[in-house]
Amino acid sequence: MLRKKNSPKIKKLFNEKNKDIVAVFKALSDVNRYHIFCILMHEPNCSVSEIAEILGISLPLTSQHIKILTLNNLLQKEREGKKIIPKLEKSNPLVKAIIKILQQTSK
């Protein structure tokens, strides 16, 4: 049972970082964005058009999903000539944690 004196301690657990985590969960809650993340885990050099083909969705829709993942600091985009190659943002500790979890669940 929660006691009144413990309430402030629990409230301290909520901070700005929680907003980032919630945003990441929201971004990955869409099945296509989750699949894009997984594709890039296994095939890090897939172009946007290749991802669209794998998922069977349009190029504009794929680009929109990649934009959302990029805005949430899960991906970065690299240009190779005319191609855009999305890459996992491995400098983000949340991305590293997600990769670790997904690798453990796929065993």
Overview of the molecule:
This protein has six helices and two strands, in the order H-H-H-H-H-E-E-H. It has 107 residues and is mainly α. A hairpin with a 2-residue loop joins strand 1 and strand 2 (83-88). The longest helix has 13 residues, at 16-28. The N and C termini lie far apart (38 Å). The model has no long low-confidence stretch (mean pLDDT 90).
Brief write-up:
The chain is mainly α. 60% of the residues lie in helices and 11% in strands. It has helices spanning 7-11, 16-28, 31-42, 48-55, 59-71, 93-105, and strands spanning 75-80, 83-88.
Q: Between the first and last Cα atoms, what is the distance in angstroms?
A: 38 Å
Number of H- or I-type helical stretches: 6
The strand line-up of the biggest sheet is 1-2
Main beta sheet strand tally, sense and closure: 2 strands, antiparallel
Beta-strand level of the residues, as a percent range?
5-15%
**Rounded mean pLDDT score:** 90
Low-confidence stretches: none
Number of strands: 2
Structural class: mainly alpha
How much helical structure, as a percent, in the residues? 55-70%
